[in-house]
TrEMBL record:
This is Cohesin domain-containing protein. It comes from the Bacteria. Pfam families: Cohesin, Dockerin_1. GO terms for biological process: polysaccharide catabolic process. GO terms for molecular function: carbohydrate binding; hydrolase activity, hydrolyzing O-glycosyl compounds. CDD domains: Dockerin_II, Type_II_cohesin. Residues 806-926 form the Cohesin domain.
Length: 999
């Protein structure tokens, strides 16, 4: 049997029949996100070292007897379980991160013994082994091995000789990464800047042997990971040098078996596969990170991979996403092992096996993946709508581990990387796809990593983060933007962006992309900027999210330019669209949602849409100019005078502690006349200091995305805490009964600039039962401030509207229909429409209900008119519980054209409105924002040659001048009787028409 855990949501423990490559049973581990270690006790119990989704270490077990799993213990306050082993009595030993602690679990007493941290300033016990009453613990950082007496807890450091054996400075050895007891030896893998190596500790003599497996000088590959080392006939088999290396346990001499295997042994055992191609007692079976089983015949020197179909799991969080040149979306998961492809045009998807991609880029008919750990670059062919298995193209090397930023330009891959664990100094890698030449430039900006790349005219524009590999201290100097000349192979320019308004301490600049305007755009904290590429001077800037400070680590901002000329950017994990000309912006994701990855791609209709990730889900936001409209917020600029009772029109005091005061003030104003704003004085950080002013209800469409926004001026204030309710604005949704059903907190005002107007907003989706929303201008008990609110706005999905339609041209004396229509409505129930027209030009003959709106049994329509003033009123309603959606004809208005005039139009007045099926309870209606005008096109008489809507002597003169002339395009319309000539009979027809009009 093979036991493995798929790191999904939740993690799934699998029991697999190796011979048949099928699963026997699976178990979801509730709350667990990952597992990096399993160990089998002498009684067959499988212990699982787990890491929860909240970052806590746990111990689970599987019993092959009862065939059940159970959670045994939470491992203290430790964040994760990294290593485990057992002793002959069945006790389980556990090594942890982040305090480098050793624990013992006794399955008989179910007690957990804490031995404490084994070494000061060593966060990891990365590996361990049990031998004769002692635990040998592999530590980091740096590399150490500690021997612990499990009875007394006494420990001693035994690894002082290792750096000398390897010929490496101690500080360049980072991890005692893996351990295994093999015969009389302890095999210990050491990792660090010099590569991956393995040393031998003689357990009988308690000393280190003066031999080791180092990095292969030809392939550049060292020793891969292992947690079990197979042994047979005095030989041990180690994953090293890109294959399987045989170690003679008598002499420690090594031999390459010829098997190609450039990955780790994640569990390994001798198994008779009953396959004639494989030696029965000399075949190692192991599982790869991508789920494939590999059979390694060490006698024949061959490898046979089996389909990775056995292990089952749930959905895995999406870790990266990019659009390919074929329009499909290519994704990677975390933890690694699975990739995905999604076609936004057909909605088809598929999965494939692959490691954890930190960066993805597509060029030609290929997709390239930057894989962690190890900084490997893989290539997949996507020709013909298919996808080949990703193949290793090259390894970056130079101590680089995470290829987070990948771009393609001029036949080359451009890669920005984060260095290995414990190291500073990322690199820019340039790889020529035609020649295979690789150039790696490390420490372009000393001790910084590269997370932003853009290319123009032979130059690479890059940006940096101060974050290095894990467990490093960031350098003091600020991140920078730099220019790398590809021809000169040198940096020609670099600058910090400390001149940006509102920028304080910051650790990352990213999201670089050239816009249609030729400027270099990017983001830092909540600030969007555009630079002149010639000198890197700041041309444009906007502090879109002033609350964002010192943001980021490795993952860059993602920027995409749309076909509409707008910039779509995940600025501080907030999906934002920006007009580069005006710098006006919209936030497209809810205030409390952190977006990780985004791109643009075309759907089945060829329309560009936004695709982004939400954990295990791929989400889409449609790009449409008509989807979002501004809805009036009554008294949003606080210009209306107070009501007679002293209240503020359009607003109500929902909550006001004894230490909070609201009032209208002229001290500060952003909009409106006579220049007023809502002033708040919050004097207390307690329940007495909670205040909230609510807008009047605003109707919404269920499922629609809405943004409530306002301007806030903080005169002075102490703004503390980090709770999500420390918002300056909150958006509430209510059902039709008026019950609050959803709360969307907005911009946190902690650390916001003072004595200037700042933008605050709250964005969220109206729940399924939502009928209306209200905006709260808010100060929590965690805030103290004197501030002013102004220009409150509400924007989101349009509830629909009313419009007028008429078909074709009309003539004087004709009757025609004007159609009153509802457009893009949801749950339409009743309509009240006021129309106006010029009574000299038109006369309303009749109004009747449209068939689409209903019949006498399902709907009712009433109307009246003032023919003298040219006004008509229509009221139409559904009956019972019936409601309509989409585009709906409401009424046909039959009109007679009396005479021609200018303007000739019918106007639907702005006081017209409609309500949905909840209107009787919510008392809300959807008002038109402006008059809707329908121009009536009058046709011309055939004798009206000068198109002035009358036939007179001017038209007679025009035809008379054409008498007897040859017909062409300029006069053909004057041949009124169609006999092929312009003669006196045609002129007579025009004269007759003129005389008739003079009666």
């Amino acid at each position: 049997m093979l036991y493995t855990t798929a790191s999904t949501t939740p993690a799934v423990f699998n029991v697999i029949d190796v011979k048949n490559n099928g699963y026997i049973r699976t178990f979801e581990l509730e709350g667990v996100a990952q597992s990096w270690r399993h160990v089998i006790a002498p009684d067959g119990t499988v212990y699982i070292g787990a890491i929860t989704s909240s970052g806590t270490g746990e111990l689970w077990s599987y019993s092959p007897v009862s065939k059940t799993v159970q959670k045994l213990k939470v491992i203290g306050s430790e964040k994760s379980v990294w290593s485990m082993t057992t002793d002959p009595a069945g006790n389980v030993y556990i090594g942890t991160y982040d305090h480098g602690k050793l624990f013992q679990y006794n399955p008989k007493t179910k007690e957990l013994r804490d031995y404490g941290s084994l070494l000061a300033n060593h966060n990891y016990i990365r590996s361990m082994a049990y031998v004769d009453g002692y635990i040998y613990a592999g530590m980091a950082l740096p590399f150490e091995v500690v021997k612990v007496n499990v009875e007394t807890g006494a420990s001693e450091l035994i690894s002082d000789e290792v750096p000398g054996i390897l010929g490496i400075e101690h500080e360049k050895l980072e991890f005692a990464y893996d351990m295994a007891v093999v015969d009389k030896y302890l095999f210990v893998k050491a990792s660090g800047e010099a590569g991956l190596m393995m040393v031998y500790y003689n357990l009988q003599e308690q000393k280190w042997e003066d031999k080791y497996i180092g990095v292969d000088p030809v392939s550049g590959k060292g020793v891969m990971s292992y947690n079990q080392i197979p042994v047979a006939d005095g030989k041990a088999y180690v994953p090293a040098h890109g294959g399987i290396v045989e170690v003679d346990l008598a002499t420690l001499a090594t031999r390459n078996t010829g098997i190609s295997f450039a990955t780790s042994l994640r569990g390994a055992a001798w198994i008779n596969m009953e396959d004639p191609e494989l030696t029965p007692d000399r075949t190692i079976v192991t599982i790869q990170a991508n789920g494939k089983l590999s059979a390694l015949d060490v006698k024949k020197g061959v490898r046979k991979d089996l389909p990775g179909v056995a292990a089952k799991g749930g959905p895995i969080p999406i870790h990266n996403m990019e659009r390919g040149t074929d329009g499909r979306l290519y994704m990677s998961a975390y933890p690694g092992g699975v990739g995905g492809v999604f076609n936004p045009a057909t909605l088809e998807s598929s999965n494939f096996l692959m490691g954890q991609a930190e960066g993805i880029v597509s060029a030609g008919n290929k997709v390239y993946y930057g894989i962690y750990p190890g900084g490997y670059i893989y290539e997949a062919d996507i020709s013909g709508g298919k996808m080949s298995e990703p193949k290793l193209l090259f390894q970056i090397g130079s101590g680089q581990d995470r290829p987070y930023k990948m771009e393609y330009a001029d036949g080359k891959l451009l890669i920005g990387t984060i260095p290995d664990y414990g190291q500073l100094g990322g690199a820019l890698t340039i790889y020529d796809l035609a020649s295979g030449e690789k150039q790696v430039y490390r420490n372009i900006i000393k001790d910084h990593s590269i997370v932003g790349l853009a290319y123009k005219d032979g130059k690479i524009y890059g940006s940096t983060t101060k974050s290095g590999g894990l467990n490093t201290t960031m350098p003091a100097n600020n991140p920078e933007v730099f220019v790398w000349d590809m021809a000169k192979k040198e940096m020609t320019m670099h600058t910090q962006l400390t001149s940006l308004t509102g920028l304080g301490n910051h650790r990352m600049i990213s999201g670089l992309a050239f816009g249609p305007d030729g400027l270099l755009w990017g983001g830092v904290d909540g600030i969007l900027f555009a630079l002149d590429p010639d000198d890197l001077s700041v041309v444009k800037q906007k502090n879109i999210y002033p609350d964002v400070k010192d943001y980021g680590m490795w993952r860059p901002y993602y920027s995409r330019w749309g076909e509409d000329g707008l910039l779509y950017i995940g600025l501080a994990n907030r999906m934002t669209v920006v007009d580069p000309a005006t710098m006006e912006h919209r936030t497209l994701t809810p205030s409390n949602f952190a977006m990780s990855f985004m791109t643009l791609a075309k759907d089945a209709n060829g329309h560009e849409q936004i695709y982004y990730t939400d954990g295990t889900k791929l989400m889409m936001i449609p790009i449409s100019k008509s989807d979002s409209v501004k809805t009036a917020v009554r008294n949003g600029c606080f210009e209306e005078p107070l009501n007679a009772d002293g209240s503020i029109p359009g607003w109500s005091n929902a909550e006001s502690g004894t230490e909070v005061e609201f009032s209208l003030s002229k001290e500060q104003s952003y909009c409106g006349e006579p220049g007023q704003s809502l002033k708040i004085i919050d004097k207390s950080q307690s329940d007495k200091g909670v205040g909230s002013y609510l807008s009047d209800p605003i109707p919404v469409v269920r499922g629609g995305e809405y943004t409530a926004a306002a301007k806030l001026y903080i005169e002075q204030g102490l703004i503390e805490g980090s709770r999500t309710d420390d918002s300056g604005i909150v958006l509430y949704f209510y059902d039709k009964s008026g019950a609050q059903i959803s709360t969307v907190p907005g911009t946190l005002i902690k650390g916001m600039p003072q004595k200037e107007w700042i933008d605050i907003s709250a964005t969220g989706a109206a729940p399924e039962r939502a009928a209306f929303a209200r905006i709260a201008l808010y100060s929590s008990k965690w805030n103290m401030m004197i501030g002013y609110y102004d220009q409150v706005t509400f924007e989101g999905q349009s509830p629909g509207g009313l419009q007028l339609k008429a078909a074709g041209e009309v003539s004087v004396g004709d009757t025609f229909d004007v159609i009153l229509q509802a457009k893009d409505v949801t749950d339409l129930y009743a309509v009240q429409a006021a129309l106006a027209f010029d009574p000299a030009l038109f006369e309303v003959v009749d109004v009747r209900m449209a068939d689409e709106f209903g019949s006498a049994a399902t709907a009712h329509l009433g109307w009246n008119q003032d023919g003298v003033k040219g006004k008509i009123n229509i009221i139409a309603t559904q009956l019972g519980d019936r409601a309509l959606g989409g585009n709906v004809d409401i009424a046909h208005i039959t009109v007679k054209a009396k005479q021609i005039g200018d303007p000739a139009e019918v106007v639907l007045a702005r006081q017209s409105f409609f309500t949905d099926k909840n209107g009787d309870l919510t008392k809300l209606s959807y008002m038109l924002s402006e008059d809707v005008k329908l121009g009536i096109q009058f046709g011309y008489d055939v004798e009206d040659f000068n198109k002035d809507h009358k036939v007179d002597a001017q038209d007679v003169a025009l035809i008379a001048k054409q008498l007897g002339k040859k017909l062409d395009d300029s006069n053909r319309m004057m041949d009124l009787n169609g006999d092929g000539v312009i003669d006196i009979s045609d002129i007579a027809l025009v004269v007759l028409k003129t005389l008739e009009s003079m009666k």
